[in-house]
Structure formats: C-alpha cells, structure tokens
C-alpha cells in the first residue's frame, strides 16, 4: 500500500506541473519563468526540510508525517484550483515542497529501512518497481482531465485522490511499535565518549560527500527533465501525441531497469551500479542538447534516460545504509 501511495504521489503531486503551465499562462497571463520559479522554491524547501523529516522518522513518526503530508497536499491542490494571485501561487508551492519532503521516496525509504530491518533491499526494489510507473500514470491521466474538464477541475480531482492516499498512509504505514529492529545493532558506547547522531558520524566519511555531489547532480538533471522536457519538445514542434508517448515510455523503462537489477543484483556491486548509471545520464542529456526531435531518436533517449533513472532511485535507497 505504501508503494501504491508512491505511485499516486509522484504521479500527481510531482510530475504533473508542466501540464498546467500552458493553460495557466493563457488564462492568467503569467510567464513560464515566473511559474517555474514557484516550483523551484518548492523544491528548495523540500530539500531544506529533509533533515528534520529524517530525524522525526527516526523517532517513529513516519505514519503521522506521511498522512499529514498527503492531507495538506490535498488542501493545497484545492487552493491551486482557485488561484489567481502570483504570491499565493508561490506560497502554495512552498507548502507543496514541504509536503513532498514527507510523502515521496526519501521518507518512504526511511520508513522501509526501519520496518524491514535487514530485508530493506527487497522492499525498496518492490516499491520502486511500482513507483517507476508514476509518470506513465500521472501525466496522461492529468492531461486527459485537463483536455476534458479544464485545469481547475483537474486539480480538484487530484486533491480528492490525495485524500485517499492520506487514508492509505494512516491505515498501512506502521507506527513505532510495529517497526523492526535496526539494520545493525547499536554499538555500546566506549567509556568516556559521547554518542553521535547518524548524521554527525556520516559527515566525517568522504564517501558521504561523494554521494552528496552525485545525488545533487542527479537532482539537477532529473528536475530539468521532469519539468522542462514537455515544453522543450513542444518548442521543437514535436506533436503532443508523440510527446505524451515518449513521457509514457520513460516509466516502463524505469521498471525495465529495475527488473534487470532484480535479476542480476548478485552479480553487480553498488559501486558498479552507480558508475553505470552516471555514465548513462550524460549520454541522454547530450542527445537532447544536440537537438534530437525525431521519433526514433526520442525513443532511444527515453530508453537510456528511463533505465538510468529507474536504477538511480534504487541506488539512492541502498547506498546510504
């Protein structure tokens, strides 16, 4: 059920933003750059909230956080459906950034590693397997609604769906008494030393900062592709049906990458997996930079980017523990 919640949250709260840019620009007259500024503010806030969110989950508050995040997201989507002021639009997206910090993969991974203990890898694989279809579900679903009923009623529908996700989180995310033992048993403190937090211990490890750089670089590429790929291809004159097909293809390719990893996980190390993924991203970005716009070139892009993107999600969940 937590995996189903990820499918819906990613599909509706994260991926759908670019679909509302054109109709909102036409109705409200806001520029594209101003609207993406609100999105960027939300993503910045989501990042800043990640440390306290992780600390609260470590204290066993995952159920309350994820339920509350989905509830607030539903309320903010209703506010969005009635927005006609740019400052209000920025404020609600800052709020949605806070919600993303508690309903997307990172908090879900943290809950899973606490609930499943040593079996967390299999659980993360299963969650990302289903979550990989989020864009395939969310973008066509929202686009269909926008074309049929308009962008404001579409946001109301999305809000109602997120209320259902909040109920799922409340009913199925385990509370602190239902969680498993930690992945590693705590080491007894040496006499005369003070106990350090996990973060305080991690920042002293060079590999931690390597992951910071790698994941920040990935975040840049992923955010750019998630929110600018549709306008980019539209500007190049690619028919909207082809654009939707390419976007829809990325999700299954993410799942394909995860299936391949499930089949061959015993034959590849985490370091080898990371090197393979981070070699693929520059290839995909270069294809777009060179102006690819034909169907077959875009299909190849979707395959490379989708497989790498599907694998990096698992990498983010596995490399930190």
Q: What would your notes on this structure say?
A:
The chain is mainly alpha-helical and 321 residues long. The protein has 2 domains: 2-178, Up-down Bundle (Growth Hormone, Chain: A); 201-319, no CATH class. The chain has 14 helices and no strands. The protein has helices spanning 2-14, 17-28, 32-58, 62-81, 86-103, 105-116, 120-131, 134-149, 151-172, 198-202, 206-235, 240-264, 270-289, 295-319. α3 runs parallel beside α5 (86-103). The protein starts with a helix and ends with a helix.
The secondary-structure class comes to mainly alpha
Strand residues, percent = under 5%
| Largest beta-sheet characterization | none
The CATH architecture of the largest domain can be given as: Up-down Bundle
Q: Give the termini distance in whole angstroms.
A: 23 Å
Shape summary: globular
Low-pLDDT runs of 5+ residues are 183-193
- Strand element count: 0
Key structural traits:
321 residues, single chain, 14 helices, 0% strand, 2 domains, globular, Growth Hormone, Chain: A, mainly alpha
What is this structure, in a nutshell?
By secondary structure, the protein is an all-alpha fold.
Produce the secondary structure layout.
Elements: H1 2-14, H2 17-28, H3 32-58, H4 62-81, H5 86-103, H6 105-116, H7 120-131, H8 134-149, H9 151-172, H10 198-202, H11 206-235, H12 240-264, H13 270-289, H14 295-319
